[in-house]
Amino acid sequence: MTQAEHADVSSYLAAVRRGLRGLPPSDVDDTVEEIRTHLYEEVAERGDAAAVLRDFGDPAEVASEIVERRVRPEEGPCVPQASLGRRYSAWATDVVVGLGPMLLVPTALTFSALAGGADGSNPAMPVWIQISEHVAHRWLTALGYEGLPAPGPVAIWQWMLAACLLAWAIFYWMVLRRSRSASVGMWMTGLRGIRLNDDRIVVRERDIAQDPAPLGAHRNRWWILVPAIPTGCLCILLLIYYLWMCIGPFLPPRILG
User: Fold this and answer.
1) Per-residue pLDDT reduced to its tens digit, 45-79
2) Of 7, 32, 77, 245, whose CA is between 20 and 30 Å from 38?
3) How open is the CA angle 152-155-157, to the nearest 5 degrees?
4) 8 Å CB contact between 192 and 79
5) Which of 198, 180, 173, 21 is nearest to 97 (CA)?
């Protein structure tokens, strides 16, 4: 087999691996290795890697068929979706991990500034409120309101902090949780998000794994819920507060008679 044919087979296997995303990693490795062995044997017999790959089928369709057989086997019951309680627990934990820093870090910095000796007249307000004040000032000025006090400038480190927190939230929700199915919440509850045709379903890792772990083997994951539940409640309260503080300035001021 030539180097170019090796590259074609490797690209084909990489595409199959992407289609199997969501299955347990050990199962994906075993399946890809089994396909690799079969392809090499076929290429050795026929001597045409392109024809072998073409006859084997489109890699996305091959991966979809493997997942389909795993979820809906010809013999035995279909793999059920995870219970609503498990999915909600995973989602709630992901909210804390993915969005919690955006709410908790600016709040902690504000309280640290007040505890460090600030007199309270001009504390380091959370960056989201500072940004909303600037946007609201421009908006009200454009509407014709005059004499509005201009908000203070946002420090460079505050802009950098906001960018980092926003980047983390996007990375966590769009890459870790959705693309790689490797979020903290799903790991905690033993769930896997897999692609089935055009749908994404969430199942228990134990139900989808070829060699499931013994029952109770991952109960220690639930200790994450102990801090996650009160932290989640705090995040909800902070979210309501920040929304009110950010939306409030956009409301037209009352005209006092």
Assistant:
1) 888 888 888 888 889 888 888 888 888 887 778 88
2) 77
3) 160
4) no
5) 173
> Taking the C-alpha atoms of 243, 246, 250 and 252 in order, what is their torsion angle to the nearest 10 degrees?
80
SS3 sequence of the chain: CCHHHHHHHHHHHHHHHHHCECECHHHHHHHHHHHHHHHHHHHHHHCCHHHHHHHHCCHHHHHHHHHHHHHCCCCCCCCCCCCHHHHHHHHHHHHHHHHHHHHHHHHHHHHHHHHCCCCCCCCCCCHHHHHHHHHHHHHHHHCCCCCCCCCCCCCHHHHHHHHHHHHHHHHHHHHHHCCCCCCHHHHHHCEEEEEECCEEEEEEHHHHCCCCCCCCCCHHHHHHHHHHHHHHHHHHHHHHHHHHHHHHHHCCCCCCC
* Residues 61/54, Cβ–Cβ less than 8 Å: no
Residues in the chain: 257
Residues sharing a CB contact under 8 Å with residue 19, sequence separation 6 or more, in sequence order: 59, 60, 62, 63, 64, 66, 67, 195
Mean pLDDT is lowest, of 118-127, 226-235, 248-257, for 248-257
Q: How many CB atoms lie within 10 A of CB 203?
A: 23
Please tell me which residue, 119 or 142, carries the higher pLDDT value. Answer: 142
- Tell me the pTM: 0.66
* Chain segment 116-138, per-residue pLDDT in tens: 655 544 457 888 888 888 888 88
- What's the CA gap between 100 and 165, in Å, rounded? 9
